[in-house]
Amino acid sequence: MNVRVGPWSIRLAPRAMIVGVCLVLVGFGVTVAALSTGELAVPAADIVKALFGEGTPVAELIVSKLRAPRVVTGLLVGAAFGLSGAIFQSLTRNPLGSPDFIGFTAGASTGGILVVVAGGSALMIAGGALAGCVLTAALVYGLAFRGGVQGYRLVLVGIGANALLLAVNSYLLTRANINDAATAGAWLTGSLSGRGWDHARPVGLALAVLVPVCVALSRPMRMLEMGDDAAKAMGIRVEPVRAVAIAAGVLLSGVATAAAGPVVFVALAAPQLARRITRSPGVTMGASALMGAVLLTGADLAAQRLLAPTQLPVGVLTAAIGGTYLALLLRKDRH
């Protein structure tokens, strides 16, 4: 179905639209559950009043000051990871072409650990993570470039960089004092605990800038999925499109990691789950972003409530779910 607005036209798939609406409804349900449940329950009807400053002081403290920043950060970080994973899986034409596997998340972790060891603040740790992600991406792109960047070469170089950076991270942890090592270890797990509006704003700003870029890139990236020669034959400028897409994916992964730590497997699983539900022949960016937001906030809600009053870092739960998903994916490919 084609929708034309002035000089622009957008092709919309009815099933993808239905899936998108369903994901929005599921995300809304998870958000309400996360805001209303907990040690002190807040009725769902009072949530809106609390958010607009018309509730009781206790409800406003719980909803507006404690729970809402965490939920919003989870939604935005999950969307950023899902979108970043969709970009790289589309570019590499490989379901394992995720920032988790091609070194970008490990590079962000290296930057964060270096700042922790140096005694930096939380803001400096976030900056270090973003810088580490960008520098790693530049290194991987440069090593993979041979008159252009092929998807398989980017994956292979990225896997090598990931292994090297994981070794560096382990070395840094062994050389840190026990307090710094404990702080770095907690950050490396990936968590939304204690996240406030200061963490949500940079991710929201990055999404506001980069989502339109991703929408503009969606059509040429679909062409790239058919191969460089076919894309060139249809008038696509392959390398500029690929470079801009990589830059957008790296920035999304970097700001998400800076806000919540290296939460694993969301960028890997969200695009593939979205593709299977929408039955799309390729990776769909919008559905991937929505799926990432639902996965991360749902996992964080479960991490808080399943073993209450004990709360798990969300990265522990996404690692468990993602590991199971990866095993199923590999088993299916084997058959």
Give a short synopsis of this structure.
This protein is an all-alpha fold. 76% of the residues lie in helices and 2% in strands. Strand 1 and strand 2 (8-11) form a beta hairpin.
Description:
76% of the residues lie in helices and 2% in strands. It is an all-alpha fold and 335 residues long. A two-stranded antiparallel ribbon has the order 1-2. Strand 1 and strand 2 (8-11) form a beta hairpin. It is globular.
pLDDT < 50 stretches: none
How many helical elements?
Answer: 13
Could you tell me the radius of gyration in angstroms?
20 Å
Bulk shape: globular
Quantity of strands, as a count: 2
Strand order of the largest sheet: 1-2
Q: Main β-sheet, in a few words?
A: 2 strands, antiparallel
Overall mean pLDDT: 85
Return the string of H and E elements.
Answer: EEHHHHHHHHHHHHH
Distance between the termini: 35 Å
Q: What structural class is derived from the secondary structure elements?
A: mainly alpha
Strand content: under 5%
Fraction of residues in H or I helices: over 70%
Keyphrases for this structure?
335 residues, mainly alpha, two-stranded antiparallel ribbon, 13 helices
